[in-house]
Amino acid sequence: MQNYNNFLYTHQLEQATANIKDDFFRIYGGVDKLNIIKSPKQDKGVSAEWVGSFAYFQKRNPQWDPFCTSRSAFLKPFVESFPQEHLFGIWFSAILPGGIIQWHIDKYDAQEEYIRVHLPLIVPQGDIGITVDKTTYQWHEGKVFCFDPFVMHTAWNKTNELRLNLNFNFSKKAFL
Fold first, then answer.
1. CB 34 within 8 A of CB 91
2. Strand order in the sheet with 99-104
3. Which of 157, 155, 150, 154 is nearest to 123 (CA)?
4. Could you list the pLDDT tens digit for every one of the 176 residues in the chain?
5. Where are the domains of the chain?
6. Choices 2.60.120.330, 3.10.180.10, 3.30.565.10, 3.40.630.10: CATH for 10-79+89-174
7. How many other CB atoms are found less than 10 A from the CB of residue 96?
């Protein structure tokens, strides 16, 4: 497993955690509103316990989601401060209480070389984590976690509370 600790934007993301979390609540009004997109990806091993909402997708659809930007005070200008050639997509991602994302490989953008970056915003205490290949990791609020989404991975939240991340796909060029 390759180490992705050399991500160029770790400090900026971690420093912005509180502002991003505030913006999430400003945009959606709470985690219960995040079910704008419920994952029907059973064929990819992603269960209905995962919910997400795309804020921006540069490579497929180079625009901001109007719902997000009309309510966002921080996220849009913050994200636009990154070199746009490094950024492939951004979305809020939640695993509901008791939720499991089955083992899978993200193949929907195989022509692009990118690394998945999680910025955990809400991480409950308890049995919650992600396993990439054969290594298990725990999320920590405000601490960036990076991994290769083209490697088998699974995630779970066996707590009674929701886990919330802001996820990014960054070009491998964003890593030293």
1. no
2. 99-104, 153-157, 128-132, 135-137
3. 157
4. 466 778 999 999 999 999 999 998 888 777 666 554 444 444 444 455 666 666 666 555 567 777 777 888 898 888 888 888 888 888 888 888 888 888 988 876 556 678 999 999 999 999 999 999 999 999 999 999 999 999 999 999 999 998 999 999 898 888 87
5. 10-79+89-174
6. 2.60.120.330
7. 19
